Amino acid sequence: MSGLLIKFAFSFSMLIVAMSVHEFAHGLVAYKLGDSTAKYSGRLTLNPLAHIDLFWTLLLPLFLFISTNGAFVFGAAKPVPINYWALKNPKRDIIWIGASGPLMNFIFAVFLSLLIKFTPLAVWIKVIFANLALINVVLGVFNLIPVPPLDGSRILSGILPEPLASQYNAIEPYSFIILVLFIWFGLFERILWPAVNLIMRLLGIY
What we know:
Distance between the termini: 29 Å
Shape: globular
Order of helices and strands: HHHHHHHHH
Number of domains: 1
Oligomer: single chain
Largest sheet: none
Number of strands: 0
């Protein structure tokens, strides 16, 4: 039991770091594009406490860890609030805001891979950095899935013409069901993990 708790604490801490970087990027880009909602909501920070959601950040990772006997930990942060109409160019800017989170995760993973390859770190530190890079890549790839409210949906919504974008955004109340079906039909194994493995090989970590 103590071993499982240590493993959960390790994986959860990696996930929290990756999520904080991800959400901070959303808030920063939105702020630069004219929307100060994230700033005044206290979300323009790397402090994990500002991004924690009771279910998605705490209960879901714990449930997944227990149900997979310690094999898998994943979750999500509280979404950064965005005022669409405060943006300088809402249709264009929502694409940049949506892309910023996954992009920051990928940049962070690249940075970690460079540390692993080119700095004289202890082996155990390299193992930690490799796991942190993996979680960042998984989080980045997962959020590019075009299902509201994931970041991929923001990107696609910005690309689609109106009123098609409005019709597409209307599926958001059913997003949880769609994601469950996504998992149920094994699309994680067919799409997400191959993409993650490819990126990790390109980074030279695996």
